[in-house]
Amino acid sequence: MSDTTQSLLRTSLHFYRQVRLSVFCRENNWQPETGEYRGDCSGLLLTLLKQYDCRRYQQLCAHACSLRPKAFQIYDWLSQPQSGIRLNQKLNAVQPGDIIIWRKLNPPKSGDTGHLALVLELGELDTNHQQQQQQQQQLSIKVMDVSRQAHDRDDRDRPGIACGWMRLTADSDGFINGYRWSTELKKAKRTQVLVAHID
Question: Does 32 score more than 80 pLDDT?
């Protein structure tokens, strides 16, 4: 694990321990004096980037031509070849410190345009899961994100920032092809999930 990734994890966990109140909204407002965070998933990543790698934060904002890039804009920025960011599409290569993100094909002008989360910990890999008559693989991952809806074993008591467990799904060759938000949802969502590792 690289020093930068360790720094990202340390920064994220330090930030999380400081949060006293989290409110889900379309903002990005962090008040360290009171421990109040108001924002959504993209706002969380912007807050973390600004704290641990301001240069990349500025690059992202410049790419999106916005100080408040949305999830689909962050997806597009991460998907571009650039020094220091490695992309992975294999389930067995996911590691703590990775950013997972997906986007809507036709993002709306307001509301959700996708979602992103930071991988904190890896769980078990299930290589024998059957879904819709096809062999599937699933990897349990503990993530930090901001959302209205809780994951498994989630410490969120209201919409906002929290840590919980979800699953990434892959085909029989191990290529990531979607996610399962929680075990309360019987079906996995098939979509292109980008996994980005910042060196």
Answer: yes
